[in-house]
Amino acid sequence: MIVPLEHILILAGLLFFLGMGGMLAWRANLIMMLVCIEVMLNAVMLVFVGGSARWGTADGQLFAIFIMALTSAEVSLALAMVVYLHRRRKTIDTDRFSEMKG
Amino acid sequence: MNIYLALILLLPLLGGLCNALLGRLLPRRVGVIVACGVIWGAFACAVLAFVGFTGPVRVELGSWLAAFSFQAPIALYLDQLSLGLTLMITFVCGLIHLYSVGYMQDDPAWARYFALLNIFVFAMLTLVLAENLPLLYLGWEGVGFCSYALIGFWYTEEKNATAGRKAFITTRIGDTAFGIAIVWMYQLSGSVSITHLNSMGALIPAAVVTTLGLLLLAGAAGKSAQLPLSVWLPDAMAGPTPVSAQIHAATMVTAGVYLLARMFPLIGSSETVRAAIALTGGITAFYAATCACCQRDLKRILAYSTISQIGYMVLGVGVGALPGATFHLLTHAFFKALLFLGAGCVITALHHQQDIFRMGGLRTKLAAVYWPFLAGALCLAGFPLTGGFFSKDAILGGVAAQGGALYGGLLLLGLFTALLTSFYTFRMVFVVFHGEQEHSLSPGPLPQIMTLTLVPLALLGLCGGLLNLPAYLGYEGVLDGFLGSIPGFGGVEQASHADEIALQIVAATLSLAGLGLAWSRYTGSRRADALAREATGPSGAGFLLNGWYLDNLYWALVINPFNHLARFLWKRWDEAGIDGTLDGLARLTARLGGLPAAWSTGRVATSLFGLASGVAIILVYLVWVTLS
């Protein structure tokens, strides 16, 4: 193992919080939010892969592949919804959608 | 005997129920005949009971209240006192029922009227015949209820309904004291039987007897309109006039006197109680007589005179002259019923005019009313040789026989009251019936039955003295002998014959003086002057006209503070305090609930921030756990 697990975790944490910060900051654009979610998910995948390498089991890698599949499905759905929303309201600024107000 | 006693009670009850339940379905004639018939039936039973009477009997008709050692059966006790009163009640009420047929002939609510009148007679007879105190209390409350319902009989006028409530609430104060006394007596002796309690006198501590006596006096003062609870009776005149005659003059208001006389063997052993009873009676007699001198409403004059005469009876009970008090009770029932019925005739004939200053000169126009009314007035004024003269004298004789400063003072007060009584009685007679009629009121026709019923009452009032002629005539009075064997009634201290004759001469002189005074003031040339002066209201008359402002005193002392307290509790305590606290709590909760509600904006960003801050908090916690 060349790269120690701590380094991977630090990198993953940085990626995760970058993604999260980006998502909070870039609310005006739904597509950028989806991109940031991808970054966060990748951070999680990185942790899985790192853990898998550290303990020499394949479970983590399996999970990483699962997450990839899941993200591709999620992104395709989410993008379809973005297209739909854009058609309806001519905008993809999330602050403009507040119909779910309780 | 049992069947007579049961019928005496049941007949009026059945009549009342019949009119109350079926009155609307029956033709008027049938209902009226039933109402009068049951009372006369009860009178017939009372006469039969009198004929068959050999000695006191106790009859148990059924069980009523029974719990552990507490026993209050429906038991009747017929002795000379209750028998005499039963005869009087059924007879006088019978006549008043007949009179009511004429008086109420145009009133559509006759069924309610006669039902209440019959039930009143039932309750009054229960009161008089009861053997135990709870049953007596049942009758006591029954007459109170009927009185309330009949004072406010024409309840569509606010004034009448208020008078009914006033009577009910005022007497309730006395009734409460009476109720406490009953419970206490049961607690002391384990029995509520009147005969049993009366024989317990020596076993109960003196201080307790005194307190019990004062409680019973309070009860009697409420029912009999004695000071300080006298204020309801003048207002009770709002009811129909026969009701005033039956309930507020002849029978119900004497219930207090009956109660005190009945319980006298128990409470009479306390010197304090006797003095308190005598003082109450004497002062009330004087108070009401002064008020009656200035009234201008015919029925209010009679109301105050009733209070005054009952004051005499209470005075008689206080000095232990029980036969005298009973004698006065009987004659008073006759002549006061007569006066009220006569007044009812006058008022009906004058189209419901009650102001005596608007009457006058009715002597010839209403001769059929004038002569009986005059007979009643003579009795009330204690004119020599009438029934009222002898009975009032029997009481004053009892007072004189007591001696001492207190009773000496009460005797003088009683004699002065007799003078006032004679004055206001003849003031009423002369103003109403004599002189010239100055106003355009012309008497209308009267149903004959109304004037006919006056005659037997007038005869009884005038000849009532024969019931109990004074002892100096050489033989014992009929009533004295009849009542003498009841515990407490015998062994009355008698003034010597010389004293008694002297007293009667003084009383007769006073009565004639009052008559003379009224004659000189209200007849002949000075009549117009006197009437004009009184109509404008001379100085000081307002004080007497309003009954010494006793009502105002109660307003200031009791009613206004109570109203203020009630308003305070309503506005400040209930609405501002309790409701305010609860409303405040509710508002606080709603506002607290509004705080998290502000987060549900529906925007994705808010949720995201919530998520992020949650993650941040968890992280901070983990760091803190790791480091510490």
UniProtKB/TrEMBL annotation, chain A:
- Catalytic activities: a quinone + NADH + 5 H(+)(in) = a quinol + NAD(+) + 4 H(+)(out)
EC number(s) for this protein? Answer: 7.1.1.-
Task: Give Gene Ontology CC terms.
Answer: NADH dehydrogenase complex; plasma membrane
Q: Which GO terms describe its biological process?
A: ATP synthesis coupled electron transport
Q: Where in the cell is it found?
A: Cell membrane; Membrane
What are the protein's UniProt keywords?
Answer: Cell inner membrane, Cell membrane, Membrane, NAD, Oxidoreductase, Quinone, Translocase, Transmembrane, Transmembrane helix, Transport, Ubiquinone
Predominantly, its location class is membrane
Can you name one GO molecular function term for this protein? quinone binding
Q: Where are the transmembrane segments?
A: 6-26, 31-50, 62-85
Classify the protein's membrane topology as the record does: Multi-pass membrane protein
Subunit record text: NDH-1 is composed of 14 different subunits. Subunits NuoA, H, J, K, L, M, N constitute the membrane sector of the complex.
| Record family assignment | Belongs to the complex I subunit 4L family.
What is the name listed in the Swiss-Prot or TrEMBL entry for this protein?
NADH-quinone oxidoreductase subunit K
What gene codes for this chain? nuoK
UniProtKB/TrEMBL annotation, chain B:
**What is this entry's stated membrane topology?**
Multi-pass membrane protein
GO cellular component: a single term: membrane
| Gene Ontology biological-process annotations | ATP synthesis coupled electron transport; electron transport coupled proton transport
Primary place of residence? membrane
Give the matching InterPro entries. Answer: NADHpl_OxRdtase_5_subgr (IPR018393), ND/Mrp_TM (IPR001750), NU5C-like (IPR003945), Proton_antipo_N (IPR001516)
Where would you find this protein in the cell? Endomembrane system; Membrane
Q: Which UniProt keywords apply?
A: Membrane, Transmembrane, Transmembrane helix
Using the record for this protein, list the coiled-coil segments as residue ranges, or answer none: none
Superkingdom per UniProt: Bacteria
UniProt domain NADH:quinone oxidoreductase/Mrp antiporter transmembrane: residue ranges: 130-406
Q: Which residues cross the membrane?
A: 30-54, 84-101, 113-130, 136-155, 167-188, 200-222, 243-261, 273-294, 301-323, 329-350, 370-390, 410-433, 454-475, 501-519, 608-627
Q: Which intervals hold domain NADH-Ubiquinone oxidoreductase (complex I) chain 5 N-terminal?
A: 64-114
Listed GO MF terms: NADH dehydrogenase (ubiquinone) activity; NADH dehydrogenase activity
Spell out the Pfam families in the cross-references: Proton_antipo_M (PF00361), Proton_antipo_N (PF00662)
Q: What is this protein called?
A: NADH-quinone oxidoreductase subunit L
Q: Which organism is it from?
A: Oryzomonas japonica
